[in-house]
Amino acid sequence: MATAAAETLGLLWGWLWSESFWLPQNVSWADLEGPGDGYGYPRAQHVLSVFPLAVCIFFVRMLFERFIAKPCALRVGIEDSALNKVEPNDTLEKVFVSVTKYPDEKRLKGLSKQLDWSVRKIQCWFRHRRNQDKPPTLTKFCESMWRFTYYSCIFCYGIRFLWSMPWFWDTRQCWYNYPYQPLSRELYYYYVTQLAFYWSLMFSQFIDVKRKDFLMMFIHHVIGIVLTTFSYVNNMVRVGALIFCLHDFADPFLEAAKMANYARRERLCITLFVIFGAAFIVTRLAIFPLWILNTTLFESWEIIGPYPSWWLFNALLLILQVLHAIWSYLIVQTASKALNRGKVSKDDRSDVESSSEEEDETTHKNNLSGSSSSNGANCMNGCMGGSRLAEEQGTGKATGNLHFRASPHLHSCD
Predict the structure, then answer these.
(1) Which residue ranges does the Swiss-Prot or TrEMBL entry mark as DNA-binding (predicted)?
(2) What is the pLDDT of residues 354-402, one digit of tens each?
(3) Dihedral of the CA atoms 67, 70, 76, 78 (nearest 10)?
């Protein structure tokens, strides 16, 4: 029995690491055992080093949010919502939990008589109680500041060393002498750090502020990790690094827009979001296909020819490009609404959050007036999306939320 199980595992392992799948013809894993230069050639066991690094990144994030991001949030006027607890009231709490969070005019009047409170006071109680259940703005600001810091630093690091690489300027050199391309120290650090960061996001998304595009972002992180690991194992790290750098360019603008929105700097938020949208569309709809897909599909075909993992790699990149197109469309919708209304509405791969109290007030007034029309749309995270644009006219919850980590790196849709 044990022998049969061992044979089955051996066959599964051999199938998983089949040279005929991973590598071009006439290339074996043994050929990549040589030291090469610098850090030698990429090897699958290198990927194991990302897990302790991912844990370190997570703890660095905790320290950063506590000792750097939180003081910055307080300095720009973001209050700690833990200090703003709603006044306890058993009757209203029972209605809130068991009946409705948005009482109509008839119920408000009934509660007013029962409690001897004014209708206005009860309205305020329900609004504050709803806000109490929402993720604290302080927490969201800290998360965005951490991502802004990481994306800015990793982009600067990446562009700094890629600028001097010949394959940055001539993508055909990503494929010359492939897969016998030694791994430099800078490229190794860049790749391992990016992969570790994706793993840290995979872990932290279960304790982070829950977005309505949680499932989309979960899939986004999985695809990003698969693509990054895949490209490292079969030594497509040169083109992988280009994809990293290209996707990192727009991300800091998104996170900066979110921080500006949390701090209620509305004009700055809109300006940064429009810049982000322009950067995203240019990099994902123009540069990505003309620069990245051109080299992975056509230049690589001409220089090394297709093989099984080549087809899978390009299929994933084409799926990513489809996501880019969808997200770009939704970003344009969100930006148009922001410019037309003078504020950013809730979008799907987004997290630009307007004042929840103001929006709840608008929602409540709409409820009382009987308005029922709504206008929703999804937006990219948001990186990839599944939430809706805030209902601009009508009933429903309006919590402007711009959570998108619009950047599928190598995938990748934080």
Answers:
(1) 94-137
(2) 344 444 444 444 444 443 333 333 333 333 333 333 333 333 333 333 4
(3) -160
Q: Can you tell me whether residue 358 is helix, strand or coil?
A: helix
pLDDT at 326 exceeding the cut of 50: yes
- The full DSSP string for 202-236 is HHHTTTSPPPTTHHHHHHHHHHHHHHHHHHHHTT-
Coil vs helix vs strand at 260: helix
The structure tokens 């119920």 sit at: 107
- How far apart, in whole angstroms, are the C-alpha atoms of residue 29 and residue 392? 58
Residue 38 clears pLDDT 60, i.e. is over it: no
Tokens found for residue 23: 């590598």
Residue 352 neighbours by CB distance under 10 Å: 30
Backbone angles phi, psi at 350, to 5 degrees: -135, 175
Contact 313, 295 (CB under 8 A): no
DSSP string, 278-332: HHHHIIIIIIIIIIIIIIIIIIHHHHT---HHHHHHHHHHHHHHHHHHHHHHHHH
- CA 293, CA 299: separation in Å to the nearest integer? 9
Q: State the CB neighbour count (10 A cutoff) for residue 287.
A: 13
Domains and CATH numbers, the chain: 34-76+136-342 (no CATH), 90-133 (1.10.10.60)
Claim: this prediction has a pTM higher than 0.85: no
pLDDT averaged over every residue in the chain: 79
Task: Please answer whether residues 76 and 218 qualify as being in contact, where contact means their C-beta atoms are separated by less than 8 angstroms.
Answer: no
Please give the C-alpha separations between residue 318 and each of 24, 139, 288, in angstroms, as whole numbers.
21, 35, 10
| CA distance linking residue 103 with residue 184, whole number of Å | 63
Whether the per-residue pLDDT at 198 is higher than 60: the answer is yes
Structural tokens at position 65 = 């949010």
H-helix or E-strand containing 70?
helix 70-75
- Burial state string for 171-194 with b = 16 or more CB within 10 A and e = fewer than 16: bebbbeebbebbbbebbbebbbbb
Angle among Cα 255, 260, 266 to the nearest 5 degrees reads 130
Kindly calculate the radius of gyration of the chain based on its CA atoms and give it in whole angstroms: 25
Q: Which of 151, 372, 128, 375 is nearest to 249 (CA)?
A: 151
